[in-house]
Amino acid sequence: MADLLQTLSEITGPGGVLTGTDVTSRAAGIWMSESIEAQTMVRPKTTAEVSAVLAACHETGQPVVAHGGLTGLVGSALTERGDVILSLERMNRIEGVDRVNRTMTVQAGTVLQAVQECADEHGLMYPLDLGGRGSCTIGGNISTNAGGNRVIRYGMTRDMVLGLEAVLADGTVVSSMNEMIKNNAGYDLKQLFIGTEGSLGVVTRAVLRLREKPRSQETLFVAVDEFDKLPELLKLMDARLGGALSAFEVLWNNFYRLVSTPPAKQRPPLAQDSPYYVLIEAMGGDDQTDKARAEAALEDAYEAGLVTDAVIAQSEAQRLELWAMRDDVEQINRFPPIFIYDVSLPIPRMEAYVEDVNRGLAETFGTYRNFAFGHLGDGNLHFGISAGSDNSAKKGVDRAVYAPLAGIGGSVSAEHGVGLDKKAWLSVSRTADEVALMRTLKRALDPRGILNPGKIFDAAEGAREDVDVAAG
Amino acid sequence: MADLLQTLSEITGPGGVLTGTDVTSRAAGIWMSESIEAQTMVRPKTTAEVSAVLAACHETGQPVVAHGGLTGLVGSALTERGDVILSLERMNRIEGVDRVNRTMTVQAGTVLQAVQECADEHGLMYPLDLGGRGSCTIGGNISTNAGGNRVIRYGMTRDMVLGLEAVLADGTVVSSMNEMIKNNAGYDLKQLFIGTEGSLGVVTRAVLRLREKPRSQETLFVAVDEFDKLPELLKLMDARLGGALSAFEVLWNNFYRLVSTPPAKQRPPLAQDSPYYVLIEAMGGDDQTDKARAEAALEDAYEAGLVTDAVIAQSEAQRLELWAMRDDVEQINRFPPIFIYDVSLPIPRMEAYVEDVNRGLAETFGTYRNFAFGHLGDGNLHFGISAGSDNSAKKGVDRAVYAPLAGIGGSVSAEHGVGLDKKAWLSVSRTADEVALMRTLKRALDPRGILNPGKIFDAAEGAREDVDVAAG
Predict the structure, then answer these.
(1) Do A407 and A352 meet the contact criterion of CB atoms below 8 Å apart?
(2) Is B307 helix (H, G, I), strand (E, B) or coil?
(3) Do the interacting molecules here have an ipTM over 0.85?
(4) Is the dihedral of CA A102, A106, A108, A111 positive or negative?
């Protein structure tokens, strides 16, 4: 390790390598109290340095964990003592914006909010938005294929990345900085690095697709009395709003009560007695007529018997209040221990699935709280579950949430990824042949298994052990 | 080969294997006069049969070329005499439609138009649309990541496939029949089979994402007097139409004259003296007010000086006439020899690039015709070039079109793929490291190189030769 440290220092220059408490005094995640385990952090400033760092680690079989903003929720950036952290924190430059081509070129360590603000300054929008916006980086967004609130309109990160540059485990730089929406000249290599949690390469730069900035935002909050009406309402709004629908966020009754009752800050915009509520948003192009259009769509929904009560935000302040209510997920923390879930499944199976989960929680724990909410339009449900008396309850809650997904085509991770936390449950959503193919890719691109080893799935048996010996 | 034929017959039963003139009496492509070269075609009816067929071919190193509707334009489905064709023509069943989840499950041999019609019957839309709709298959669309006219709104095939099932070269069935918009549980394996032209596996089934059917279609045709105003007009329309913009098709002057002058069927809707014309379409949700909205957007474009003349279709008949004009690409065939191109590049470089191409054509051929049109919103340009006296001119035209793409981030294939036709020019758009990574994937998934060998790029040196020996 001493020789390798020397090499890494030479590659990255003064301040490039941090060791000991300079590393371990940092938190392992921005929402975690635990410290980083790894003793070494290397902070390259250029792609060439990333390449040299990986080549050196590859040569010695040194495990490397890439770090972005550490806002992940599945332990994908956690380290072990002997790991080298490859932090992109000094590669955070926006290299350029093309207003006409509607693209932005950035280094992977750029913080999402900086990208959003830069796009805004150019009259454009980078539509990815999520709670960690002030810390999470574009590289992290790419490696986890981040989703967020506007997927129904703009897709996930995968749909916003036109091109990228990545460094393979052996230091090879693969530059696929495509700037076009259409490019079918050979394999679309960027897909290898999107949503693969840093296990196949380290993303160093990206070309992002920007969108025209909406000229209006209409926000509705409605009450719905039966689950089956939710997807019908989604269909109606999607059809009526003609491409402008950007969010369709469902709140189960108990989640709504939680976030609209003191000590939560927001007050209930609608009576609290409906089983479901939906926050609906449209981003339009005509601030003169979009409100009338949203009202007409809502009128249709009333007439079709799909909603029982509704409010339309009459001001930007009201609009923000509705979102603040939906986003006040922290209220769940009043009932520790709390376990957060992020699953997806076909919408027609959702009602029965939630009942299955609650039945399982009741059987295991007797009493429990399950606050449910989600991006229904994407098939994505979140649970905030309070059960048991301490964190030892997690296994039982995991089982109650994940086991019923098997056989109904559900996913144990809609948007957060797998990391370490969901690894044991991957087989619920993926077949042995699928995992075998993932391993084939891993072996082909990272034959020594140095990149984020042990995350998502175990590499071929013994791989991690071999690597540790080599690193010693 | 005789042993293998026997095996393939046993796997697929009566009528499963065709040989000799039953194969070679078929055209090599629906727009080609040449016959198929291969002497053997196997037509499995199930995924299990596809698996057994590939396992048998893998064992003997037999090259296999998968066939869909043969509407491809780059020679990706062409065969050599010793190849086995794996035709999906007997796997053309629509397995189900989920109106609520907005998904359709199909076998790969299903014809696109059948999918479109089935979606329509359920009040939904499968947005992929292209000229070959009556022949091309979903499997072919997937293997080429087909684009078409509505990419600006709905994306390419990649964006319409939620899940798929593919059979690897060795017969392993990888079923990733995901039905959700969001699923980050492990690597997104379907990407390996989208746009890889049958070189990494054979797609057997897919889950398609359906959309709500538009309730209005507004079609505008406008004249623009400067190239730089085209992207500004695109930006304005995109912003003003609030997500409804579905097509932005640019016609260069000579292409417009060609398709609006006898013997072409359509008459010019606008005077023929403008350098550029644009066919703009919006698919909306409100047939009462969408037309007024399109008119207001057009008014803004006039005021901004972006258009000099315009017409809005006042009836469905007029709408179809405008599209018939745009789609009358066959008029180009009046000036043989004709060479068709499909490139993409950053929009800000497009005007200079077209000038470069024309300069190159003039230098090489003296006289030439270059009819240009394209999906400008996607950075995608098509050329129909008439130059030289016979097909021997192709090399010179290729050079004039492709060489200027190097160094400006252009792609030799926006939507058609690479196949055999563009293979020699792949290096214009992709670096040696990118092609090396493609080869790494090819070797990992198809170690004996039996799947569509020699297409897109050459496998490791000698691979095809080895295979031929094994197949003998």
Answers:
(1) no
(2) coil
(3) yes
(4) negative
Contact (Cβ atoms closer than 8 angstroms) between residue B348 and residue A100? yes
Is B195 within 8 Å of A188 (Cβ atoms)?
A: yes
Burial degree of A170 (CB within 10 A; 0-12, 13-18, 19+): middle
A60, with CB counted inside 10 A (0-12, 13-18, 19+), is middle
Quick check: A187 and B438 CB within 8 A? yes
Taking the CA of residue A204 and the nearest CA in chain B, the distance in Å comes to: 15
A432/B contact by beta carbon, under 8 A: no
Cβ–Cβ below 8 Å for B101 and A418: no
d(Cα B454, Cα B96) in Å, to the nearest integer? Answer: 36
Cα B257 from Cα B300, distance rounded (Å): 27
* Residue A359: count of CB within 10 angstroms of its CB: 12
A10 interfaces chain B, CB cutoff of 8 Å = no
Sheet holding B309-312, edge to edge: B309-312, B216-224, B276-284, B245-252, B368-375, B380-387, B338-344
The Cα–Cα gap between A461 and A433 comes to 16
Integer Cα distance of B12 and B160 in angstroms = 31
Map tokens 């006039």 to a residue.
Answer: B302
**β-strands A64-67, A84-87: how paired?**
parallel
Mean of the per-residue pLDDT values of chain A: 95
Which one, of A472, A446, A470, lies nearest residue A459 by Cα? A446
**Residue B118 in contact with residue B94, Cβ under 8 Å?**
yes
Q: Is any Cβ of chain A less than 8 angstroms from the Cβ of B406?
A: no
B289 in contact with chain A, both atoms CB, cutoff 8 A: yes
DSSP notation for A232-297: HHHHHHHHHTTT-EEEEEEEEHHHHHHHTSTTSSPPPSS-S--SEEEEEEEEES-TTTHHHHHHHH
Nearest-Cα distance to chain A for B268, in Å, is 30
Q: Is the backbone peptide bond immediately before A231 cis, with ω within 30 degrees of 0? A: no
Flag whether residue B378 sits within 8 Å of chain A, measured between CB atoms.
yes
The DSSP output letter for B83 is P
- Out of B346, B441, B445, the one facing A179 most closely (by C-beta) is B346
**A260 token code pair:** 């609209």
Question: Does B243 contact chain A (CB < 8 Å)?
Answer: yes
The C-alpha atoms of residue A2 and residue B194 are separated, in whole angstroms, by: 45
Long-range contact set of residues B402-405: C-beta below 8 Å, sequence gap at least 24? B402/B343, B402/B428, B403/B360, B403/B428, B404/B353, B404/B356, B404/B357, B404/B360, B405/B343, B405/B345, B405/B353, B405/B429
Segment 172-201 of chain A within 8 Å of chain B by CB: 172-189, 191-192, 194-196
Residue type, B447: P
Q: What is the mean pLDDT of each run of 10 residues along chain B (472 residues)?
A: 94 97 97 96 98 98 98 97 98 98 98 98 97 97 94 96 98 97 97 98 98 97 98 97 95 98 97 98 93 96 98 97 96 96 97 98 98 94 97 97 96 97 96 97 98 92 40 34
Q: Closest Cα to residue B60, out of B389, B450, B434?
A: B450
**Which B residues 94-113 touch A at CB under 8 Å?**
98, 100-103
Is A462's pLDDT higher than 60?
no
Prior bond to B348 cis, omega within 30?
no
Query: Residue A333: which of A302, A371, A374 has the closest Cα?
Result: A371
Is B448 in CB contact (< 8 Å) with chain A? Answer: no
Among residues B376, B377, B360, which one has the least CA distance to residue B368? B360
Contact A414 B183 (CB under 8 A): yes
Residue that has been written with the tokens 């009496």 in this structure: B25
